[in-house]
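Hello,

Our lab assistant flagged a job as stuck in the queue for most of the afternoon. It eventually completed. Since we weren't sure the result was trustworthy after the delay, we are filing this so someone can double-check. Below is the sequence as submitted and the structure that was eventually returned. Let us know if re-running is recommended.
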Amino acid sequence: MSEFKRISPQQAQELRTQGAVVVDIRDPQSFANGHISGSRHLDNHSLHDFISHADLDAPLIVSCYHGNSSQGAAAYLVGQGFSEVYSLDGGFELWRATYPSETAQSSEE
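-- returned structure --
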């Protein structure tokens, strides 16, 4: 895969059950108030550490507020060597509406 793909919450949920990594690029307060269960908060401070320890071949799902910012972040991560990157269409807001039981709160996951 040389580019990221846009996927629905349903496709993301299927990938999650297969072990995909989910990263959330929203601001820390929004992440703390609610995020996809098991996701990692990714920002400029944690990006280098995340990339240096990540499995570049593992499926990676990028989530933001509504599915717009995640596309740019997904494209960036492809450029960093990740081979299977997805942008979550509708972002966390659509995810929360679709899978309310698959959301968590707190800053640490």
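-- support follow-up --
The delay was a queue issue, not a problem with the job. The result is valid. DSSP finds five helices and seven strands in the chain. The two ends are 29 Å apart (CA to CA).
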